[in-house]
Amino acid sequence: MVKRNSLIFLTAFGLLLTGCSNSGLEITKDDILEVARDDANATKSECENVSIKEQKGSYMVSFNTNGGSYEYKIGKDGIIKERSFKRGAKEETTETEKVEEPVKEETTKKEEKSSSTSFDDNQQQAINSALANSGLVQDDVSNITCSLDSNTNQYTVTFVLNGVTTTAVVDAATFTVISTILG
Q1: How many CB atoms lie within 10 A of CB 82?
Q2: Distance CA 176, CA 17 (A)
């Protein structure tokens, strides 16, 4: 029964997302919360201190689980614009929390990663933040680029996963992912 309900939800959600831009429909607060919970891989019963606030064309969603606290900025179209995660269930009051990234040894197993491509330490940290924010490691993706916009002090990281290009903007001072765009 759970598998059937999940399939129905995913199908309905997919149809809703494909039709939103043309039909003028907006996703409800319950749908937005489901998007955030799904991204965090958390069930309804695992979420505490749930907050959903509407702001200029987006929803700000936050909640705590046993694994940590989550904050999302999700557009009314259901697309996640920003996310942050802090390990541990206790929430601190800060404006922006850095996305935790797993500590991984860098390996060069895949051929997609060109041996001639090298990044300085700050670029690599920006790349690691962007990949961790997407739940990936460098070996998962290909065609990685990283450039610094000195006017805004932000890195733009792009990579390809399964033929889909992802572009992430990372703050150069804190290495916090500001936004992620698929496609």
Answers
A1: 19
A2: 27
> In this predicted model, what pLDDT tens digit does every residue of 58-88 receive, in sequence order?
889 999 988 888 888 888 888 888 888 887 6
Edge-to-edge strands, sheet with 58-64? 48-55, 58-64, 68-75, 80-87
Burial of 44 (0-12, 13-18, 19+ CB in 10 A): exposed
What mean pLDDT, rounded, does the chain reach? Answer: 76
Could you give the CA distance from residue 177 to residue 101 in angstroms, rounded to a whole number?
11
Q: What is the pLDDT confidence band of residue 115, given thresholds at 50, 70 and 90?
A: very low
Distance CA 149, CA 178 (A): 14
Q: Max CA-CA distance within the chain?
A: 53
Residues 6+ apart with CB under 8 A from 27: 16, 20, 35, 76, 77, 78
One-letter identity of residue 177? V
- Which 3 state secondary structure label does DSSP give 93? coil
Burial profile 134-149: b = 16 or more Cβ within 10 angstroms, e = fewer: beebbeebbebebebe
Cα–Cα distance for residue pair 11/30, rounded to 1 Å: 17
